[in-house]
Amino acid sequence: VMAVRNLAAAEAVRQAVLAETPGGSVEVMELDLSSLASVRNFAADFAATGLPLNILVNNAGVMATPFSLSKDGIEMQFATNHVGHFLLTNLLLETMKKTSRESNVEGRIVNVSSEGHRFAYKEGIRFAKLNDEEEYVISVRSSRFPVRFTFFEDKSVTCCFNLALFRYSTIAAYGQSKLANILHANELARRFK
């Protein structure tokens, strides 16, 4: 089964695979990993086929895309590259276990990542700031140019500060999604040893 976002584009790939594998069978099913609803629909549709599942390869993804949020409000690279695969794996896990029991052959889950995990934000995965395009950081420092801030009518403070704006990094966001792939694979390996 090929899980694809674009059914029309997948048909050419399907035909090429069938041409190389006479007598083979390739099913094409729609799956948009950036949409949790699409992932759930795919998993339900796959389960309804009754097909066995021996190998799950989580390979689809996007790289260094401009900032955007998925339909579910998750940063697009993280939604597509990690959250979609994570949910898909969890939804198909019982089918894989059943296939393994019935066939007496151990299944495999392959999470494809990249060296891009090395470019994640310095703190790793920024869960608290995952969906932020901009982040303002105020740091207090000594200076001879004090500024008075009034927070409430009767509360104010005088200090000197730096204001820094950190913008979304397409590469660091990609890196954190790839780091999440590695952590997911490690946890699956730990749980199923």
Automatic annotation (TrEMBL):
Q: What is this protein called?
A: Short-chain dehydrogenase TIC 32, chloroplastic
Organism classification: Eukaryota, Viridiplantae, Streptophyta, Embryophyta, Tracheophyta
Q: Which SUPFAM superfamilies match?
A: NAD(P)-binding Rossmann-fold domains
Gene3D superfamilies per UniProt: NAD(P)-binding Rossmann-like Domain
Annotated source species = Aegilops tauschii subsp. strangulata (Goatgrass)
Q: Which family does it belong to?
A: Belongs to the short-chain dehydrogenases/reductases (SDR) family.
